[in-house]
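Re-run with default settings, no changes from the original entry. Doing this only to confirm the output is reproducible before filing.
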Amino acid sequence: MNARAYFPDVNRIGVLTSTVLLVLALTRVARISDLSLEIQLPGFLLSLPFNLVAAMSLLTAGLAATGMDWLLRGHPLLGDRPTLQWWILPTLTTFVVGIFLALLPGGAAWRLGFVVSGVFLSLVFLAEYIVVDTGAPYYDLSLAGLTAISYTLFFILAAALRYGDLRLYLMLPALFVSAGFAGLRIFRLQFNRWEYAWSFGAAFVCAQLAAGLHYLPLSAVQFGLMLVGPLYGLTNFAVNMNEDASIRRAMLEPLIVVAICWGLALIVR
């Protein structure tokens, strides 16, 4: 009974992970013609492409959210609490993984990415289940892991969008929403409350940076590094300020991380 309070049912987490992976695999083999919604604006043609990858990424993200809710219903300490906060990261993870797999070339690279994605998804589901109970023996490890995963997902999404060469008006909303939800989950884990202003303020800054960096000759990795640094810096600054640190101390670590990320961006390709 004690073990069940800390870890999810193996069958449930296996069914959830395999179902999400099955949908992602079907996306790879299915072939449907792309659709495009075109709107003629004064002096500008707005084209909104909608393809199978986009549709299935949204579908699997919704499936992950529903599945996470189903998984949490088996937690003996959940009680009557709403499960919304535990949906955010599994949903974002599934969406990013779907885009990542769609951009991978076929063959061994895709199969390896598929296996890694399955392990990654399982760890997210497991960690989210564990942090329901703040007294769980692996609570601190899970909290740190979920925080790191939030930043990693944003980096992967930014790099994938850059690699896919999306138009700016399609890239910015995706980056803004992902950065905002990543921030929401991080602050919820740290403060146990929703921090909308900090989360979407940081997302707005990242979106503005992305707009400026979009026209520079940067590789996908460079683009991701130059965005994830500021996201980490702003969220970490908010955490430090919440702990009543001085402005100088609150800014020290964020500035160091931003400098490291931007420094790496200058030397990698």
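The beta strands are 35-41, 44-50. The two ends are 51 Å apart (CA to CA).
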